[in-house]
Amino acid sequence: MLIDFNNINENSLQYMSNYLQRFMPFSVEDVKALLPYCSIRKFDKRVEIVSEGEVDNYLNMVLIGLVRKYVKVKKKETILQLATEGHVIHSEISYLTQTPSQVILETLEPTTLVSVSHKQMQDALASFPKGERLGRLIMTGMYVKKDERRYEMLSKSTRQRFLDYMKRNPHMLQRVPQKYLASYLNITSETFSRFKHLLKPSKNI
Amino acid sequence: MTEGVYNFLNQHTAVSEDDFRLLMSKVTTRNYNKKERLTEIGEVEDRLHFISKGLIRKFFYRDNEEVITQIIKQGTIISSTASFFSRKPSQYILEAMEPSETVSITYDDLESLYGLGNTWEKIGRVITTHFLLQQEQLLMDNIRLTVRERFKKFMNENPELIQKVPQKQLASYLNIKQETFSRMKHLLYDRTIKSV
Fold first, then answer.
1. CB distance A144–B85 less than 8 Å?
2. Is residue A182 part of a domain?
3. Which ipTM did the prediction report?
4. Which of A26, A35, A45, B90 has a CA 20 to 30 Å removed from the CA of B46?
């Protein structure tokens, strides 16, 4: 599951640098300095990487692949996140407070993650020069995303949510079973199917 | 007033007296009348408010209906946060529900504190994490709890709000129909049901 850092190629370093540049200036050299605080983890598809009731030990960034985060209430699954390349995914409450997870994380494709364990995070915050700032900016970014998603779910019609999501994520229809996308958008599967015709190019527009 | 800010910060992380004095040199105290707005839709939120007195709500309009997403009591922070951090126009209105007093800091002043180094970065990270967790727990509750359970949880945590806030607004905040809300009110008085 763990692979060593000699296996990290320049592309991955560049990718991580590009990703972290969203938050603050972050060179490939900075990424190399950050790597001792990270683990690279590889999973097959359909592997539960965090189970309900388990304490989540890792904050992950998806390098390759796709992970879903969901809650199971009675038999019903509600998908909260579909994380692809460049997304941060973990069981936030469990990881940050070291309590049993209420959510489940599962890979939907063979997946490679850059993971920071709880211990590594404490070390990075204490010793990595840009650690505190990066930590704050990542938390802020996650907070803003959650806030925006909440607004979308409350303010937009199902149709609008569907259209906006598909416009932003056109490839997801190929990568993810429809019922998962429907759950993520809080739309019934039937409605989701009905909306699909909206994606066909139309002469009227 | 400043004591409230000091206590709030120290609940989350240790802040030295010098750092606190520095922070206090950057903040402004403001008073708002009932129904006065702190932030309007479309303007970029420029302030993070600590509520030293009063009650403030955050809402937007869906068609013509108000949708309340937060009702914040004194002793904690409110802002149109996504707008504040992303510098994009606010999608929300912030409005005082009773005469309120806030101690607030502007985006630029907060950034200048972050520029001073890790002490402030850490305070910022810890407090942001607190709000992230709060938001995530709210989401969990909305999915995992029944309407009845959510109603009871909110009322147990905020018993005074039933007097202060119009029912319609509480129902909106809890995302419960007004009729359902009225029907559930007996849960507040019927002690026998609480223990079931």
1. yes
2. no
3. 0.90
4. A26
